[in-house]
């Protein structure tokens, strides 16, 4: 596709632009000069885990792996700005609500525990003990523990998350809505069905051996910048990178590595994608089915010509179940269907297939472009089917890599943040701690919101995150939070969720990753996290806490737990004081953590064994399992196409944000500066509407459930994107994501397939 209409003539991703942008953000964030020292300790053996993404850390090379967006994440936390009680005294909560997410967080780190005072509509300081006592008394006063919701965002450490789930289960519920429900839930479900583990099967080292890497529905240039380094090294070695993304993302086209002095001085860059395909939104299952069809056709041709097999028959025979049925399903899918749904031509799909067939070892990575659709589970099963055809799992350089979001979202699940816990895990908790665990499955994010809206939930506790902004139908969720008896937010910076107080409301400020956590005896406490490659490693902050009144997440959870359930089952304060003891409990209840405390202190930590990576299949069939579903009857783009003036909208991240945290108003790689209320759209779609670049519109939700959803005053930006598909930023567009639209099986909000239309605005 012609790219001449993309904003400014674009330089490669990374490079000097990345360095410049870092400098600017560091200045704006108010990070002290000592910040440089903070940066150097990110992702180092004796430092802290970068609070940015969940990409793995390399074994070799002790120098700091430069990452522009890691710098921003660290600087944002290590700021010198403070949201003190004076900040909260100055404005009523109603006034604060008028600020944008960006303006709110710019006020810096929270310093004191705060309690909402309805009479003055302000947050006032409160003593920790009083906060714990009041939270405990409201929680114990609910007539059923299932009337409370315990949210987790994926930054919480293994130690905090384990203690949290233990407290909540002693209290008596499995209500654990978490950010994963909105993120990689579909990956976990599909992979457990297909290969028996819900996690990626590759290590970082596999990227050094792969002959081809398929990157589907992911924008690593912005969201996992260190992954670009691995893709770049692979590309230089001659591995082929194949991208499926409706949008041409610059980082996937060309990358200039700030680590590479020669490349930086020459002003050069490396081509990343050798093939870049732009499917329609939601068209990936069809695209992958198309590749599978082309693989089977190549196999038939090889047989006819007496050439070696294209399929890995040994793997299929020894390890797989359901291949014959799958083959029939593929044969029953026509090229016409595949082309129509994927938006790709047969020739394009065959070119990708050629790369696949000529590669001995293939890795497939994916993220939100795959998981936030109606048919995400079926799509990921199809990716697995496709990979099975040539045995691309459980050998060096080959395997599945769902690239996680939050830096410890994977670890949180491992240690028990799960509304549908396994019986094995509950049995282990029960046996080790000797209490009757709740067995009834609890609420995920959408169920929790449902319960808050219908009045069956009365309390919300948030361990990090920004629930009201990250969830769909923001306006409704805000109302739901304000109807509760109790809202509690454990957080580092003020955000909009804090401004939706229930009858009684607290903001409890905690230490961040970059800060030292000293116990009563003055010993520094280590926490641990798990990355996308299932490596568990330690993290210890080095900065002085943002305020002397902060507590660690672990200490806050222990305080609430003590005030709510007492110490009959667990001595909370002992655990808060010594994280090694928490890890001993993890080791005793969760497989894979043998010698946790010892192995954690090794430089790169340790790897949690992944059965599928060893070709052991913990599935009902005891094999790697093919699925044989038909393609979705209709995808969002096919539906939108039927209606006049309708478009399929995806909501994604700019280069200057971390989820609901907006660092700045630029999206450098996409050529957008100083604004966020934009809609990326194909120029021919603009012409067809008699509209032009820069025109302003209201974006109107077309979910057809009788609810009016409008996002006001957005500006058109012409972009290289398929006709009929459009894109804009989360969280500004969350008002358009319907609560009632969720992925099959995954129950994930469909943030990448929203049907909308436009309404012209007369004035800006
Ligand atoms: N700097 C920074 N880092 C982050 C985050 C952040 O906000 N900022 N967030 C973290 C979190 S929690 C997560 S989950 C990850 C998110 O990482 P990503 O998944 O990369 O995040 P998105 O910005 O949502 O980008 C989705 C990509 O998928 C493409 N896409 C959308 N729909 C489709 C589709 O139907 N098919 C295909 N093939 N592609 C599609 C979009 O064009 C876009 O390139 O990043 C993590 N890392
Ligand atoms: N429309 C749309 N919606 C989406 C998505 C999308 O692509 N489109 N993506 C979804 C995805 S993938 C995810 S993961 C969710 C994210 O949902 P969340 O995890 O709920 O949101 P975040 O924006 O990451 O949370 C930011 C807040 O976390 C707090 N925080 C930061 N660091 C710490 C810490 O160390 N400890 C504690 N206790 N608090 C801290 C700060 O107060 C900050 O304001 O959003 C989802 N929502
Ligand atoms: Mo995420």
TrEMBL record:
GO terms for molecular function: 4 iron, 4 sulfur cluster binding; formate dehydrogenase (NAD+) activity; molybdenum ion binding; molybdopterin cofactor binding. SUPFAM superfamilies: ADC-like, Formate dehydrogenase/DMSO reductase, domains 1-3. It comes from Rhizobium leguminosarum. It comes from the Bacteria. Residues 109-489 form the Molybdopterin oxidoreductase domain. This is CbbBc protein. Residues 740-764 are annotated as: Disordered. Keywords: 4Fe-4S, Iron, Iron-sulfur, Metal-binding, Molybdenum, Oxidoreductase.
